[in-house]
Amino acid sequence: MLAALLLQAGYNAALVSIGAALLGAAAGGAGTFLILRRRALMSDAMAHATLPGIGLAFLIAVALGGDGRFLPGLMLGAAVTAGLGLWSVQRLSKRLPEDAATGAVLSSFYGFGIVLLTVIQGLGVGRPAGLETVLLGSTAGMLRADAVVIASGGALIVAALWVLRRPLAMVAFDPMHARLSGLNPQRLDLILLALVLGVVLVGLNVTGLILIVALIVTPAVTARLWTHTVTGMATVAAGIGAGCGYVGAAISAAVPDLPTGPVIVLLATAIFAASLLLRPRHG
Amino acid sequence: MAEFLALSLPPILIACLAALACALPGNFLLLSRRSMLGDAISHVVLPGIVCAFLITGSASGWVMGAGALATAGLSALLIEGVSRRARMDTGAAMAVVFTAMFALGVVLLEVSGTSGIHLDVEHALYGNLESLIWLSATGLESLSDPTALADLPPELPRLALIAFSIATALWVGWRPLVVTSFDPVFARTQGVPTHLVTAGLTAATALAAVAAFQAVGSILTIAMLICPPATARVLTRRLTTQVAASCGFALSAAILGYVLAGYVPLWLGLPFTVSAAGMIATVAGLQLALAATIPFQAGASRL
Amino acid sequence: MSPISPPSDGAVFISDLSVRYDGSTALDGVTARIPRGSMTAIIGPNGAGKSTLLKAVLGLEPSSGTALVFGRPVAEGMHRIAYVPQRAAVDWGFPVRVIDVVLMGAYRQTGLLGRVTPELRQHAQTCLERVGMEAFAARQIGALSGGQQQRVFLARALAQKAELYVLDEPFAGVDVATEAALISVLKSLRDEGATIIAVHHDLSTVAAYFDHVLMLNRRTVAEGPVATTFTPQIIGQTYGGTMMMAASA
Q: What backbone phi and psi angles, to 5 degrees, belong to C69?
């Protein structure tokens, strides 16, 4: 395990750890703005809503003659249904409390995803073994190409967040003032949700869709305990996320029985609990 | 007929009872804007069950249920404590707490090895409705045969008892529940013990979630806690109508979903069935989607 | 009433402005022309639509009719307006320091991706000094009292370098010292050529604080210089109207 932590467990494992670290940074940064906008659980709905997309993409890929495990296709499918889920939450929120809309979308999309998974099992087509890893994540045996996708996706999201940090902070703090200052809060909200969706998609293979919400939320709320500024919070959250992603991926690579997602989540929770007990008094 | 009694009637009844047990408290979670509490609680049932098994070594439904109830209560306290101490909204606090406990459950399950415990993560997520069968059923006469009835899946009487208890508790506590969900500050000035009422609602939710979880898995539990009440809410602004309608939607989703999952693939000539829990959740979501497309009469769209 | 044409020298020109929520009418054909460089109070009873009027003029509330700012549609003049809402509806636990809030006012000058230059930071600091809050620059916004928070939001408006300041009940719930500080800042802004419009509640201070009034009760009751318009008779019309409406409702 020490070898894995020190990047000496082979080129692939090192790449996976770096990818997980970048994912963690992106999740912490995006989570900061999502928390400040009070939409933490929106990421959970999005993550669960990816499952039917993954199932559909798998079935389509099989129908086209592949073995189904075509990663870009699966991610595209996941993005489509997650976007549909998000749209449904926003539509339903006009007539229901937002948390009820979130829960309704989360559970019914996920339920449909499970129906599709049992269809795939029943058909016995393609190579569905391992499709369940999207539930809880697994970095063991990850391909180099997957690791590159994760690392570059994470880096892109971090860069976008850095560029947009001030308008995003303004919209989160006072949307009306932001609007009067010539910003478009709806569009910025949409951009933020798109970035969170990016984190969810990239994170499917690392933490799995059930626990990605923790990588988005927990480092951000931890960071909030330590700093007074949005940029500070995003930076600390990205740091915590990166550390947890890196160490978690390394541990999971060394102990293949341990799914990556839960390990990363428990690391992040430990840091949160310690921060809650040790945090400085706020002025 | 015997086949229906043995293979289909018990799962349908169990799904219906689980749906009712969840939909009833779900109405009040919706009113007090705590719908996602059901989501959080059904995720923390897993570590409760695993811990109860690891500590007692017993795989009895009651022991594991007690463990699950304990973690559900613990998580409700943790959510409140975390959101107060870290001054964050409950949504974020929930996300922190339930993911941590769920992750703990998964890791415990993997580390301790699953031998002897009839549970894995997939089972926890989508339940195993189809396996709850009544092999002693030989025909209609089995319904009046005590020895055959004793062989019913234990989940059935357990859920019946819990659904009945929850319905009774709501009946008894109706007025304080309504006033607390609508305006807790006013309720307190009127001498309503709002903390007790809130805790009671949390307990009822936990009880429903734990009982339903063991039979139908966490995803259906969440769907039933949220979707039928939400569907009813979209269609009516009268509380009694809403509760009654939510029960109707819960039952129709359970029955329709089971039929779609268990029979329709066979009618289509496919050699397999699909997940009943997943299909019921899908139907519950579709009901809500359909209801939401119906425009409501003017004035009611504003809360 | 003779038809009015949009003047080119007015700060705000409102003609036949109405706001309706399904069924009820919040504003009914409001008309006003607020002169440039004036300090105008909007006065009226509860439910007269004062806040709604501000929001409608700023385009934050759907309305029918005309509202021009400096002779142009408000969307074109937005960069010349600073708005201080009624006790800003923000999350007071938000991780921003006082200076960050003020810097948000300078957003127009930096643009979407612009850097916060030392000059900008200095300007924000000057705005804080103007409202007497320079010592609190590094405090978290939630750690301030209500009056101090109100001063910070005025500093944010100052940082916008606007020509028209629109304030919704700036003195509601603030301490006496803050009220005095706010009014002296507003008066000095007016002396520098800016136009101030504020919803105001305290009839006893209207004459001391303002030079122009708009008496509102769902429609314009009267509008003009304080000296000629803020008379007992017109005040009676403005407030008495509600009582009659309440009696007939």
A: -120, 120
